[in-house]
Design goal:
This protein has about 500 residues and is of the alpha/beta class. The chain folds into 3 domains: about 30 residues; about 210 residues, 3-Layer(aba) Sandwich (Rossmann fold), CATH 3.40.50.300; about 180 residues, 2-Layer Sandwich (Ribosomal Protein S5, domain 2). About 25% of the residues lie in helices and about 25% in strands. The protein contains 12 helices and 23 strands. A 9-stranded mixed beta sheet has the order 8-7-9-10-6-11-12-13-14. Strand 12 and strand 13 form a beta hairpin. Helix 10 runs parallel beside helix 12.
Length: about 500
């Protein structure tokens, strides 16, 4: 008793203190965009989606050092100047010319690619073909599936005629086990992970497929690729909006993001580069889905125009550019009277806001009344056009359908329409006209500035269009009356 009183008098407690471990605060992460909140709520403020917040362990977050443990000091690393010897990144051809075109000439050593696409579009078929062709050259290729068993992958390979390819298969989802297996023996040149949403790592305590697990698994695989020098392809699922599911930070971490597009009703597939650190981002690769897998299309223009409807009103051939490759595609339009108070505007393969702008220019500067008509626009073949040079072809198809006037079957159209109704010049006009001449077209409706770029030896006759109203008057002059025509157009 006297000793306790003496301790109290000294003001110091000699008893050992028990350090209580702080419990990590709960973290609610949006499974759509990756935004984190400290409490649950019904709607994500970042992306606007409802019921997408899920509780995840915050063990992967940065935390303060434990009591009694010194903080780790950073190491000093060497800094270099901008001047020095630079070498092009060594590339390895995949054996598929269309795939090499999109990624910039082949796989770069140590690069990581993220491939996304709708379910059933052919992502696994494309990658198993690439792995098989690469392995036949003597390189080591590994295909790891987290969604299918090895027997299922073998069945697909047999159907594609790739059973004799020395591709190494595995069905595994643990990232640590995958890296330990790949580190044994000869370093692989290509590793396919199908898909990143099924992978999980022991370092993060959450369910596979969550934002935290996808980010952690991708970071571990990227670190392995940079250290070993092998090329890694990650397959990613997409949401209903066409965006790759999971955190957007994964798209920033990888070296290239590829989108595999196509319509289920068409056999054409388009491989497009959305991001590429080692090559262009505007190149496309065209494939055709057959019973024996994906077949490369060397001349996509001829394929897109193979089933063209000649002599029908509302169809125009657009001479476009996809990357460095000129592509000719048919644009179909249908303008029909409507009994609804608000006419329908439906578009497939083109920007809907771009269609609304062209319709407004036609009505404001060309006297074409479309307020009482439904408008449908379609890009034949499943190709999605992103360049504004398609404005003139779309306007020609719309006016042709309204006036019931077929456009010349041997003519192509390209040009950007401004808000004032003028037709502005576009880039690479000579390549567009050269591709048109190769496919047998003899006329081209294009802006006036194209004349200076056109070679005199070309077999394509140039019909310049200075304003959209000029083209409308030419088409309307050849219009044929219809028995149920209720709309009118002036000009």
């Amino acid at each position: 008793m006297r000793r306790r009183r003496a301790a109290d008098a000294d003001g110091a407690d000699r008893r050992p203190h028990r350090i209580m471990a702080r419990r990590p605060a709960p973290s609610f992460v949006c499974q759509n965009c990756g935004a984190a909140y400290n409490r649950w709520q019904g709607k994500c403020d970042a992306c606007g989606e409802w019921n997408t917040l899920a509780e995840e362990n915050a063990g992967g977050a940065l935390s303060a050092p434990m009591p009694g443990r010194p903080a780790r000091k950073g190491r000093v690393f060497a800094l270099e100047s901008l001047t020095g010897d630079t070498h092009d990144a060594p590339r390895l051809s995949s054996g598929m010319a269309e795939l090499d075109r999109v990624i910039g000439g082949g796989f770069v050593r140590g690069s990581v690619l993220l491939v996304g696409g709708d379910p059933g579009i052919g992502k696994s078929t494309l990658l198993i073909q690439a792995a098989a062709m690469l392995s036949r050259t003597g390189e080591r290729a590994v295909y790891i599936s987290g969604e299918e068993a090895v027997a299922q992958v073998r069945l697909r390979a047999e159907r594609l005629g790739l059973a004799d390819a020395p591709v190494e298969l595995a069905a595994e989802t643990s990232v640590e086990d995958i890296i330990a297996t790949l580190s044994h023996g000869r370093t692989p040149r290509l590793v396919v992970i199908d898909s990143i949403q099924t992978m999980w790592t022991d370092a993060i305590d959450s369910a596979p497929g969550t934002v935290t697990q996808v980010r952690g698994a991708a970071q571990t695989l990227i670190r392995f690729a940079k250290r070993s020098g092998c090329a890694v392809i990650l397959v990613g699922h997409v949401t209903k909006d066409g965006q790759i599911a999971g955190p957007r930070v994964v798209e920033h971490m990888v070296d290239a993001v590829l989108s595999f597009e196509g319509e289920g009703a068409h056999q054409f597939r388009i491989l497009r580069a959305v991001k590429n650190r080692f090559g262009p981002t505007d190149e496309i690769g065209v494939f055709e889905m057959t019973g024996a897998g994906l077949r490369e299309v060397a001349n996509p223009s001829e394929l897109f125009l193979s089933e063209r409807d000649l002599g029908s009103p509302g169809t125009a051939v657009f001479a476009g550019i996809e990357g460095t490759r000129p592509v000719l595609v048919e644009i179909q339009a249908l303008v029909a009277p409507t009994s609804l108070g608000t006419p329908r505007r439906a578009v497939v393969g083109w920007d809907s806001s771009r269609l609304a702008m062209v319709l407004a220019v036609l009505e404001a500067h060309c006297g074409v009344r479309l307020s009482g008509h439904d408008v449908y626009l379609n890009v034949a073949g499943g190709l999605r056009i992103q360049e504004p040079a398609a404005d003139l072809a779309a306007a020609a198809a719309l006016v042709s359908s309204l006036a019931n006037a077929p456009l010349p079957a041997d003519a192509v159209f390209f040009g950007e329409v401004s808000l004032s109704g003028a037709v502005r010049p576009v880039a690479q006009a000579a390549a567009r006209m050269k591709e048109a001449a190769k496919l047998g077209f003899t006329r081209a409706f294009a802006p006036e500035a194209v004349r200076s770029e056109t070679s005199p030896e070309t077999s394509v006759t140039l019909s310049t269009v200075g304003a959209l109203a000029d083209l409308v008057s030419r088409i309307a002059a050849k219009g044929r009356p219809r028995g149920n025509q209720t709309g009118r157009q002036d000009g």
